[in-house]
Write a structure and sequence with these properties.
Layout: H1 26-38, H2 41-60, H3 68-77, H4 82-87, H5 97-126, E1 141-147, H6 151-161, E2 166-169, E3 176-181, H7 183-209, E4 211-218, E5 222-224, E6 232-235, E7 248-258, E8 268-278, E9 286-291, E10 296-298, E11 301-317, E12 323-328, E13 332-333, E14 340-346, E15 353-360, E16 363-366, E17 370-373, E18 382-390, E19 410-418, E20 423-425, E21 432-448, H8 452-471, E22 475-483, E23 489-497, H9 504-514
Antiparallel strand pairs: 1-23, 2-3, 3-22, 4-6, 4-21, 5-7, 7-8, 8-9, 10-11, 11-12, 11-21, 13-14, 14-15, 15-18, 16-17, 18-19, 20-21, 22-23
Length: 531
């Protein structure tokens, strides 16, 4: 027997062709659906994960805000991938549009998720516990026993046993009592998420109004908080470089001492910078000491001591015997023993000179490693120099690093090693280089982060809220006492938790024992589930 069909040959059986089509979603419905998706906890977790993933390039790749020289060097070393990553914003991650998009979406998602839950929890706190179910014995944890105590007295004992709980009592003829506790669990959960929102606000404030920079200062020299004084500087979108606080400081003395024992040999034991600072250019200088993890706080910024090294001093004369260079040059350490490299550019010499150098605090030379330092302290200082003459490329208009020497248009004059006080006469009468000694330098990071206090407070509050939400249990307990023929009561005690709660059975047993539950009876049933 064939199924009936309509004129178009479609089946007319129930459920095959008589279902009404769904109405169109519409623009308002689409927006409502998108908002619900965005403010769901699942979306918030995905966005939080994406934010963590998006932060990885900012930790792996050099960033323009902190070290523009390294960014330029990275682009030169990677001509294929460098420009692509640069266009995508991987060298300025935290200011890139895609990072800001994830950041703002997470912020909106958390706010849209937390506010409705807060309103719902506020209503729940003001609502009394629900009445006792008709069949208490069907709950996951339940106890039933007979007692010689009258129902009214049983409920009085239940009120005493549940003294710290929010309670609701039935009319006398119904004979039940409902109690609930653990509202702070949801409070902790809401506090945790609100703290995340506050943390995002703190990060945004620091990103918009904060700034930081790095500078190397030699002993006896000073630093003033202007943009031109920094070796590297990065500021937020709302920071004006000409509005920096006008403080300054002078590095009076830098002291460092190294471990000489076998254990941790070469590790710094003393790492101190003695400075004189001024809040204003006209103010009287104040002396202080900057150490690791003990920065100088001045005018809303902090000055951190982050590194140190050596600056060998050279006196260079050209072919005419005129002094064309007389200064200390910062050399950058390359290893833990402070094998340091640096360059000297002398465009005023005739002909122009360029010198690439290697400074060794405790010099050693072997066939395997070549010249190197065996200890970071200046026990046997020496320099190894390579001199060049020709075009330094300083008139090309392309910026150059003071720590690199472009020898592509230069000719090498020779190599030489010098001890303090030695003089090298350059070949072909090009001049002389005298190594007179060395000075120390210290590296400072000056930073202002106006959102750090909010970030720290938010993180601490978030941890506290998370602990509360993890360890507090939301529980409900009902006690029902029904009159029994001949006197006494039939007592039922049952409990319910909103999540897995291994302690609920003990809670029910505690209340039941206060009401006269015999200790010899079986424990509350945990194998049943509500139907």
């Amino acid at each position: 027997m064939t199924a009936p069909t309509d004129a178009a040959g479609r089946g007319t059986d129930a459920g095959q062709g008589d279902e009404a089509p769904l109405p169109p979603l519409g623009s308002v419905g689409l927006l409502r659906w998108a908002w619900r998706q965005l403010t769901s906890m699942r979306t918030a977790l995905v966005l939080l994960f994406l934010l963590a993933v998006a932060s990885i390039p900012g930790s792996v790749l050099p960033q323009r805000g902190t070290n523009p020289l390294r960014v330029s060097q990275w682009l030169q070393d990677n001509p294929a991938t460098g420009p692509v990553l640069d266009r995508l914003g991987f060298f300025d991650v935290y200011a890139s549009p895609w990072f800001a998009a994830v950041y703002l979406l997470l912020f909106v998602s958390l706010v849209g998720c937390v506010l409705p839950r807060a309103r719902q929890h506020w209503r729940a706190v003001r609502t009394p516990p629900p009445p006792a179910p008709r069949r208490l014995e069907r709950l996951p944890q339940a106890v039933e026993f007979e007692s010689d105590v009258e129902p009214a007295d049983v409920l009085a004992l239940a009120r005493a046993a549940l003294g710290g709980w929010r309670r609701r009592e039935s009319p006398p003829e119904a004979g039940w009592l409902a109690a609930e506790k653990g509202y702070s669990r949801e409070v902790g959960n809401l506090v945790f998420h609100m703290s995340l929102v506050a943390l995002l606000v703190g990060v945004a404030v620091g990103g918009l109004f904060g700034w930081k920079g790095n500078v190397i200062v030699r002993e006896g020299e000073g630093f003033s908080n202007t943009l031109t004084q920094y070796d590297a500087w990065g500021g937020g979108r709302m920071v004006q470089a000409d509005g920096l606080a006008p403080f300054s400081f002078t590095l009076d003395r830098f002291t460092v001492d190294f471990e000489r024992g076998e254990a941790q040999r070469g590790a710094p034991r003393v790492f101190v910078a003695d400075v004189t600072y001024r809040d204003e250019p006209t103010s009287t200088g104040s002396r202080t000491t900057i150490e690791v993890n003990e920065p100088l706080a001045v005018d809303g910024a902090k000055v951190f001591l982050v590194g140190h090294g050596y600056a060998p001093h050279f006196v260079i004369r050209d072919a005419t015997g005129a002094v064309v260079f007389d200064d200390s040059v910062v050399f950058l350490p390359q290893d833990g023993n402070f094998t340091s490299t640096g360059v000297i550019k002398v465009p005023d010499a005739e002909p122009a000179l360029g010198i690439s150098g290697l400074f060794l605090p405790t010099a050693a030379l072997d066939d395997v490693r070549g010249p190197h330092s065996t200890f970071p302290a200046p026990d046997f200082p020496a320099v190894f120099l390579s001199a060049f003459t020709g075009d330094l490329g300083m008139d090309s208009g392309v910026p150059q690093s003071v720590y690199t020497l472009d020898t592509s248009q230069m000719d090498q004059l020779g190599l030489e090693s010098l001890l303090p006080g030695d003089t090298w006469s350059l070949p072909d009468g090009a001049g002389t280089v005298e190594f007179t000694g060395f000075e120390r330098w210290a590296s400072f990071q000056i930073a202002s982060d106006p959102g750090k206090e909010l970030v720290l407070a938010s993180a601490l509050v978030a941890i506290a809220g998370l602990l509360v939400s993890l360890f507090v249990r939301r529980r409900r307990i009902w006690v029902k006492a029904l009159p029994r023929e001949g006197g006494g009561s039939l007592v039922q005690v049952a409990g319910l938790s909103k999540a897995e709660d291994a302690g609920l059975a003990d809670e029910v047993a505690r209340v039941a024992s206060r009401l006269g539950w015999p200790a010899t009876m079986d424990a509350p049933r945990a194998d049943r589930r509500t139907t």
